[in-house]
Amino acid sequence: MAAHAFKRGKYWLIRLSLPPDSSAPAQLRRHIREAAVYTGFAEDALGSMLIGATEACSNAVRHGSYSETDSIEASIQAKSNEMIIRLLYKTTPFVLTNPGIPNLSEYIHVGHGHYLMRESLDEIHYYFRKGSVLARLVKRTRHKN
To answer: Is the CATH number of domain 3-140 3.40.50.2000?
Structure first.
């Protein structure tokens, strides 16, 4: 995994390539925590971002369409009151639903991720293009930069 961190204006930007396997969410979380340290991002908002980003990255691993040389391209853009995560990966288009609170008696092992993301993050956007999707996750804090 290659990672590059630098400051761009008011934001810290970390770019990385993640392997499309079960190690990807933990690697992403480590870099999100790094960005929070650089910027003083609030601990409570950090916890919410970690939940949402872990779910999004796990979905990328589970539902992506990968060859041996593919990776999940990620970026973390952070300042003290806002963090934006972008995940770009190969997949086929999918439809997101807004089913409300999951029925735990129906879904034991799957089906809670999108609900957790909606509850944890301020914004979630998916942009589809030519066999890939760009997931954009946003979390804001209450204090100003």
So the answer is: no
